[in-house]
Design goal:
alpha/beta, Spore Coat Polysaccharide Biosynthesis Protein SpsA, Chain A, two-stranded antiparallel sheet, 46% helix, 17% strand
Length: 297
């Protein structure tokens, strides 16, 4: 794993039509985060001014038509993995945020130890999971939430992205984490079916949801079909075909172009290394400055 930025953390917030909640999430991230980090937003077709507001704050936004949780989380993961120097990528759903300063160091340490760690919630005091809930001894849980997840660059390179056969909401995160379990369960050394989870310094809330029972049922069938055909660890790209690849790369290019327009990436880079590498090079430099500037100004 690269140490160029001392385990630089990429934070992607996934959102749709919840601007006031997103604003609070970002304020809490700024308030409580101390490790070197980059902040960006993945927007799933919001119509409430989310994109305009975020761009006005100087926050990079990858956006497009509504495609659901899997696609939107891939917007963030692909952006951070391909166009930044982040060593770790952490996803926050917009209704979840830090509540304790120092949360980030624990989550980073846990990711470096376990490679992929999820947030657990609603713990039953009568059936408390094994583990201390620390980076070295996380809770051992058979179930978890997609509210907050952290993954290392190397692990994402090996396991891949969320499967875009999942549409809307439901099951996509379970299948994604199951692939990490297949790849790393021997290294984890946890009891069969148990996953490393944290409940430290982060809180999930439960605002109005865009839940759709038909989407959940469809995704349940997709999940069952995928699991029935699994024979071992495998990699999943952020798209199913060239059409999806071009769409995702186009959405990311739109975000990079906004950064280029705002911060004036040097034109000679375009001539010598190509537009995508030029934007990436300029963007990494811009974000390196951005993470220190924050939104507190």
């Amino acid at each position: 794993m690269s140490k160029k930025h001392g385990n630089l953390l990429g934070i992607g917030i996934v959102t749709r039509n919840r601007l006031s909640i997103l604003q609070h999430c970002i304020a809490e991230i700024v308030r409580h985060t101390r490790v070197p980090h980059i902040l960006m937003i993945a927007d799933d077709g919001s119509s409430d001014g989310t994109v305009a507001w975020a761009r006005a704050q100087g926050i990079p936004v990858v956006t497009g038509d509504r495609r659901g949780c899997a696609w939107n989380k891939n917007r963030a993961l692909y952006f951070l993995q391909q166009y930044t120097d982040c060593d770790l990528s952490l996803l926050f759903e917009d209704d979840t945020w830090p509540i304790t300063t120092g949360w980030d160091r624990v989550w980073v340490a846990a990711a470096l130890r376990w490679r992929h760690v999820n947030y657990c919630y609603g713990l039953d005091s009568k059936n408390w999971p094994k583990g201390l809930g620390t980076a070295d001894d996380p809770y051992q849980c058979p179930a978890f939430g997609g509210h907050c997840t952290i993954t290392t660059r190397d692990a994402l390179t090996e396991v891949g992205f969320l499967d875009t056969r999942f549409v809307g909401y439901g099951w996509e995160h379970v299948e994604w984490t199951h692939r990490f379990h297949l790849r790393y369960k021997a290294d984890w050394g946890l009891p069969e079916g148990m996953l490393p989870c944290l409940d430290f310094g982060v809180r999930a809330t439960w605002p109005e949801s865009f839940f759709d029972r038909k989407e959940v049922d469809h995704n349940g069938s997709v999940y069952t079909a995928i699991r029935a055909n699994i024979t071992g660890p495998y990699y999943c790209a952020a798209w199913q075909n060239d059409g999806e690849r071009l769409q995702l790369e186009g959405e990311v290019a739109g975000a990079l172009a906004r950064v280029d327009e705002t911060h004036k990436v040097r034109p000679q880079l375009h001539r010598h290394v190509g537009w995508h590498r030029a934007l990436a090079a300029g963007f990494r430099s811009i974000l390196f400055q951005f993470r220190h500037r924050s939104l507190a100004r």
